[in-house]
């Protein structure tokens, strides 16, 4: 049915998992309930997601590395009946501090926030997801024989829905790689020559470099973050077919390129989406010049402002230009400045702080922090404080303690300004 | 190779190949330093680091799952590296697959 690293999980084993779940007290009457899942074991997570889907439960997905306290707070904030933490049997019921919400239509939930406002709970019903999977499979045009090798976390939509569920839906048997050893991925690529590797650009580049002369790469699927021109060239040299998909939490997968023509080629929108650029006053006066603007995706159910600057071409394909807001993209995982700022602001002795984006040569973006403290606080203590409350990827890479955070003419802190100043210094 | 030599090579790799400012500032690294929490190496970076260990240190990394606890600290990573065999001895074995 699927494989995790070198472990095959048969349909029989998957069914045994289900029988075990049915005996757990908290999973007796799961219909309509929301369950928060914080599980690092990919096989367990997938089995549990499919079980809960089948039984009409909603799921809140979270990163497997979330500290327990943070996972509990997030679970309660989403109106979940409870949190399943690492093991299916380890359950923390909602302690009543927040309302428990039931769903008529079961959904998959994620928290997403922006640079303004509070974290938003985004839910997509299983019906909508099934529909997305169907149009995704139609667009990607892969037969069941092509083996997906999924390098990205199955706790997020790209890995779970596109890497695993869409593969299962078309009869393919995906391999989920959770082990850090790239030599294992290389061995799997060699063992399954008719493969498609799902990753973020940095992972694909690493595997491409490693496979040089050792294994032939068949198809590569990139998503999660923009691909650099250099990465595109390096991957192009492998002779493999390059695919790229584009989406966001609210919409799921929006578009797909089955043969990338450039680093920022996002391909054609899936059947359900109509994508346009938000009209602005600054329409270019020169004929033929296209001004990048925010990509807006519309379907029968909703309109999504992606927060990405892009272009829509005459042939209907999309191109990515840049991010509009201050979201930090750490190797495909999104970090929202407001969320991290709130965590640091709660630390005793911190008067003011700002989280902004820096650049890292391999990971892409990095999380930076500038803070003003009342007392003599060391950056290490800020880090330790964050590690107890956030998954490691959200913890600032660089923490600078200052006597004052630079502000603009209006007296406001501008993350963009801080970012530009750092860029100029490098 | 002596443990100290391996540690130095590892530090060079982290500074020059992974471009880690953190390692540059903290070197010489204490063995108790944690790769993820203290050096900010996430899974994408660790993936790349293993490739550099093979390429730069000319050591053969087996094509199996590695115990994730290896990437806990500098010390546990050194324990792992010291047990690896030289790459060149294994090249023939690889091609024979």
Automatic annotation (TrEMBL), chain A:
It comes from the Bacteria. Its EC number is 6.2.1.-. Pfam families: AMP-binding (PF00501), AMP-binding_C (PF13193). It is an enzyme of class 6 (ligase). Gene3D superfamilies: 3.30.300.30, N-terminal domain of ligase-like. GO terms for biological process: fatty acid metabolic process. Residues 101-296 form the AMP-dependent synthetase/ligase domain. Keywords: Ligase. Residues 339-412 form the AMP-binding enzyme C-terminal domain. InterPro entries: AMP-bd_C, AMP-bd_C_sf, AMP-binding_CS, AMP-dep_synth/lig_dom, ANL_N_sf. One of its GO terms (molecular function) is medium-chain fatty acid-CoA ligase activity. Belongs to the ATP-dependent AMP-binding enzyme family. PANTHER family: ACYL-COA SYNTHETASE (PTHR43201), MEDIUM-CHAIN ACYL-COA LIGASE ACSF2, MITOCHONDRIAL (PTHR43201:SF5). This is Fatty-acyl-CoA synthase. It comes from Paenibacillus endophyticus.
TrEMBL record, chain B:
Gene3D superfamilies: ACP-like. It comes from the Bacteria. InterPro entries: ACP-like_sf (IPR036736). This is Acyl carrier protein.
